[in-house]
Each structure stands twice: as C-alpha cells, then as structure tokens.
C-alpha cells in the first residue's frame, strides 16, 4: 500500500486510519499541538478564559468561536500573523443553562463578539513546529460592531441605505465568515456565508423585499438566535435593507491594524464560501467564489485594472480596489455524455468520465447589467436572482475553489446535496452533479486556457465516498489503495502541486472529518491519503500547507446530536471533563535539527 505513495514529494507519510476518536490524529512520526483556542487572549487586557464567567467585553479581546479559514502571513522579525475567521456561534455549547427561547442580552453580545475574525501574531518555538501566540502590535479582533467600508458599484445604492447609515456605504460587522483566501498583495479575503440565519421577520415585509428575502432563505418569523430582540437591525420589518449589507466577500489588511476592512459588492451577494485570486499574464486579477447551498452556482470575477507589484502599503491600498471594478460571471456546465447515461447512481457513462465543457456567463460589469429586467445594482445585491435568469448550472453546494499554482487548473469542492433527485420539484442528477441523494460530494477540475478565458472544460476528479462503493471515482486510481472521504469543503495546494482537501460531514461514512493529500498529476493522480483526523463532532477547516508545517482549524468539536454544554460529547483539547473548544492546531514532523519537510 505505502509503496504506491513513495515517489510523490509531500505525500510520503503513513496514512491515518479513519476513526471516531476524540483526538487529533496525525501520521506516525508527526507531532501536533494547539496554537490557540476559543477564549485565549488576542488583545492586551483580555481576561483569562473562564467558561462559567464569560463577558462580551472579554470575548471582544479573546479568540472567537468556530474558527474556519486560516492564513499565516510573514511579518517583521520572523514571526507570522495568523488570521482566522470565526464563522458562527453555537450558544447551547457555549453556555450552561442556555435558554434557546430566551437568551440574555449578555449572551447575545458574547455571540456578536465571538463572530468575525482574529489577527494574532505567532512565534515558532525554536527547533519545533509549535506556534505560540504573542500579544503583538498587529493583533486585532473584528466583530459584529467593527465598521466596514462598502465598496464597488453597489456602494451607496438605495438598496444598502438604512436608518443608521443613510449613505449606504458603512456597515457594522461581518457574519458567518467561512472560507477565504490570501491575495497576492498580502491581504485576506473572507466570504460571508450563511448570513440569512441572523435576520428575522422577512415574512412580514412587503414586495419586492419579501420574495428577494425568500430567495436567500431569510427567516420568515423569529430567528433561533433572537438577536432581533436586542438590535432592531436584525428585524427586517424595521430595517429591510440591513440584510443587503451582508453576503459579500470582505477584504482585510492584517498588516495595518488601524485600516478599515471593506465589503466588495462587485463580487455579488450570495452565500460566499470563499474567494481565491489568480493573476492573469497582463496583471488583471480573477476571483473565484462558490455559493454554498444546494443547487446554487459557481462565480468568477475579472478585474478591469491590473495588479501593482510589491507588498508596500501603497501597493496594497491600490490593489485593495481591484475587486471593485470588473465583470462578474456565473458558470454554465454542459456534459458531453448523453443525459440518458447519467442515471443518478454515480455509475460512469460510456466514455468513462463525468466531463464536458462550459462557459462563464456575464451578469454585470461596472454600472452595466447583462441581465434582462435587472439593474446593475440589483444584480450585485440580488445576484442569485440574476444567475437564475441566465440559466446558470445548479451545483451540489459549491465550497472552496483554488487554482493549482503548478498547472493553473482550478479545483472546486462540491460538498454534497441530499436533496438532488429526492426533494420534489428539485433537479435530478446532471453530468457535473451525477448522483441523486448525494451524501458525499465530488471534486471538480476545471481547465481554462487562461484565467481570463470565458470557456472551459471540466472533469470530475473525485466522486467521493467509501472506495468500496463501486460508484465512487478517484481519477481512475486503484480504489483498493485510497482513503475513504466524504463532503469535501476546503482545498489548498502544497509547494509540490499536491491538492489537500479538508472535509465537513464525514459522519456520513461513520468516521471523523479529516485532511487528505492527493496528487493531481503523474502516475499517483487520485491516490488520496488521509493525513489527519479531528475530534468527534468537529469539521476540519482552513488547512495551511507549508514546507515544514501544516495547520488546520478544528471547528465545532463535540457538536453531535443531543450534546450541549450540560452533556459535552468531546473534551478536546483540554481533556478531563472540560468543555470542547474550537482551536487552531499545528502539525509537524520533528527531526534532529528541527521540523522536517512534510511528506518527506
Ligand atoms: Fe461554512 Fe460552506 O462551509
Ligand atoms: Ca462524459
Ligand atoms: Ca466551508
Ligand atoms: Ca463547512
């Protein structure tokens, strides 16, 4: 088995066996340690974390909840800046005695402070891969009250004006930041994903607000969080436009702690999983982003202006405007096999490939709309409605998207879709989404001649699941040798061009989530190897794969059915009878002279 792994630089490790342990499991010969946990200090004056005595003021200076995306950026003095998203809060796990129908104001405000992002300087311990947080000058917390500048063609639109902000240009806070990306100019992009869950009473609004809200899944009555009781901006009857200021890609310059982060309207408004940048030969930049919901779409943005080289503050300031002017596109996929050969089980069609071609359909460019019946501002703010009108392809939950720095091919994680071919009125299997009741997802490989191309070809690289299931596919690699995988979520590349995939919902296979490495080229293409698993109830997020260090975010450990702060299902990472805490973990391979190369 392991012989097949030899010869692929970066992937020479003994694969981890799937398990259900309440632990982070790494390959033999590797070590791991927590970098930072929910509640650990980020800013000066942060109180020591005390699960039973939390305060909103303390949380605003501490590491937030449910870390998802993470980035490590080089900084002065050899340390790195760890930038992390805090996607959402789970109050029943955060507080003992939490009453879902009657949260206290302090609990709600702790929730606001536990969302957002953290910027934390980290120092590598000499001779080890261990990373230690430092209360550095650039440390920062972004929360639900941090001002964001709204930029791009919809900034200042009537659709974005509220009673508190009649200019429609400054929003307070960011929500449900899921995955993200590091830009070539050293800033962070982060997607506001399931923002719909925070707004109440859409059912009592008038048209067209009501049907627009419905298309985004905004709650018709009270929310389960009850935030609307403590801030009227979460009540759509009182503030119908506040929700239109969420659902964007945000950009943060972590090197400048005083800078105001921005929300880029030109990339459209939907449940942005992420945004990842490629630079075209002429210097224009391209951003890919998935709308993570069942039957939603894949998008691409092409900038009008060209990137300025260098990491100076001036270059960064300029480059932070690149995502404000350009053209937004949505993907339409065409399969090359007869639809009759796509039977919904995942059985390969007669050409032995789920593959075909596709095109990027323009939605809007600057103030110009390409969608009949919609203004450009409407396209940017109600992008799902625009994509519906142009016949985009409904996908199985488009998650992270990343281009290989070696080959330029673009990889898209399509997480799962248990409603396909099951829920009445919903679409059945198509060649790019070839299984009905799709529990395990697929990874799509998209080939563009050039990042600016408006046409592409595509091929399903992985059709995930248990390799013993005949209707899974691992790029044609012998399936008796690969690791089982379900629900791909985040993707990353190592320096050798291997793809790394983290998962969210491997419990569909009865195993814990994990991080996998797989070659996308050469004789080992498709030889998927499990590198790490996370504790019970957690998902694996935000992988960073460096030459001698891997980090992952362990999100929502212990979040299994029936568990709560009274009945914790995990005691990771603190052990004993402690409460589980979402954390960032570093993994390395110790050697005589310090960490060795990963997979060497
Ligand atoms: Fe927050 Fe799409 O995962
Ligand atoms: Ca085909
Ligand atoms: Ca995700
Ligand atoms: Ca996820």
Automatic annotation (TrEMBL):
List, as start-end ranges, the regions of compositional bias called Basic residues. 590-600
**Pfam families linked to this entry:** PhoX
**InterPro entries, alphabetically?**
PhoX
Signal peptide as annotated in the record: none
| Segments for region (Disordered) | 420-440, 561-600
Q: Where is the composition biased (Polar residues)?
A: 430-440
Determine the domain of life of the protein's source.
Bacteria
- The name this protein carries in UniProt is Phosphatase
- Source organism per entry reads Kibdelosporangium aridum
């Amino acid at each position: 088995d392991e012989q097949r792994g030899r010869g692929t630089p970066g992937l020479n490790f003994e694969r981890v066996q799937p398990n259900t342990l309440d632990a982070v499991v790494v390959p033999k010969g590797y070590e791991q340690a927590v970098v930072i946990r929910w509640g650990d200090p980020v800013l000066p004056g942060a109180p020591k974390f005390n699960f039973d005595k939390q305060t909103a003021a303390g949380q605003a200076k501490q590491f937030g909840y449910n870390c998802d995306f993470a980035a490590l950026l080089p900084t002065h003095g050899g340390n790195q800046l760890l930038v992390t998203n805090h996607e959402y809060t789970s109050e029943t796990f955060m507080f003992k005695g939490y009453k879902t129908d009657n949260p206290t104001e302090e609990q709600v405000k702790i929730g606001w402070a536990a969302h957002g992002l953290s910027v934390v300087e980290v120092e590598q311990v000499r001779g080890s891969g261990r990373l230690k947080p430092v209360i550095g000058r650039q440390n920062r917390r972004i929360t639900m009250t941090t001002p964001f500048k709204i930029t791009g063609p919809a900034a200042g639109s009537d659709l974005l004006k509220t009673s508190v902000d009649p200019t429609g240009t400054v929003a307070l806070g960011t929500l449900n930041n899921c995955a993200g990306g590091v830009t070539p100019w050293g800033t962070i992009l982060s997607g506001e994903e399931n923002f719909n869950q925070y707004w109440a009473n859409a059912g009592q609004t008038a048209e067209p607000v009501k049907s627009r809200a419905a298309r985004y899944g905004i709650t018709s009555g009270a929310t389960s969080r009850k935030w609307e009781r403590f801030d009227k901006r979460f009540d759509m009857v009182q503030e119908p436009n506040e929700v239109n200021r969420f659902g964007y890609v945000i950009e943060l310059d972590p090197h400048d702690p005083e800078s105001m982060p921005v929300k880029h309207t030109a990339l459209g408004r939907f449940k942005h999983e992420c945004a990842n940048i490629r630079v075209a030969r002429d210097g224009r930049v391209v951003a890919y982003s998935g709308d993570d919901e069942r039957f939603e779409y894949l998008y691409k943005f092409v900038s009008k202006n060209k990137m300025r080289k260098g990491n100076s503050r001036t270059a960064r300031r300029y480059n932070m405007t690149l995502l404000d002017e350009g053209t937004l596109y949505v993907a339409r996929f065409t399969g090359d096999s007869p639809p009759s050969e796509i039977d919904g089980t995942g059985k390969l069609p007669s050409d032995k490939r789920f593959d075909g071609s596709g095109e990027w359909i323009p939605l809007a460019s600057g103030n110009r709309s390409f969608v009949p019946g919609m203004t450009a501002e409407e396209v940017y703010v109600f992008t799902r409605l625009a994509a519906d009108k142009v016949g985009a392809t409904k996908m199985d939950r488009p998650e992270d998207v990343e281009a290989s720095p070696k080959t330029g091919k673009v990889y898209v994680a399509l997480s799962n879709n248990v409603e396909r071919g099951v829920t009445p009125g919903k679409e059945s299997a198509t060649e790019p989404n070839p299984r009905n009741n799709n529990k395990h997802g697929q990874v799509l490989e998209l080939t563009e001649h050039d990042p600016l191309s408006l046409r592409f070809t595509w091929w399903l690289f992985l059709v995930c699941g248990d390799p013993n299931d005949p209707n899974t596919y691992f790029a044609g690699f012998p399936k008796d040798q690969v690791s089982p995988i379900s629900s791909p979520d985040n993707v990353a590349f190592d320096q050798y061009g291997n793809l790394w995939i983290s998962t969210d919902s491997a419990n569909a296979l009865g195993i814990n989530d994990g991080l996998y490495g797989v070659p996308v080229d050469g004789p080992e293409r498709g030889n998927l190897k499990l590198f790490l698993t996370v504790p019970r109830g957690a998902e694996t997020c935000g992988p960073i794969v460096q030459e001698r260090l891997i980090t992952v975010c362990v999100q929502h450990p212990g979040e299994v059915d029936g568990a709560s702060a009274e009945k914790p299902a995990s005691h990771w990472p603190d052990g004993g009878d402690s409460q589980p805490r979402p954390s960032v973990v570093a993994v390395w391979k110790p050697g005589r002279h310090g960490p060795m190369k990963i997979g060497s």
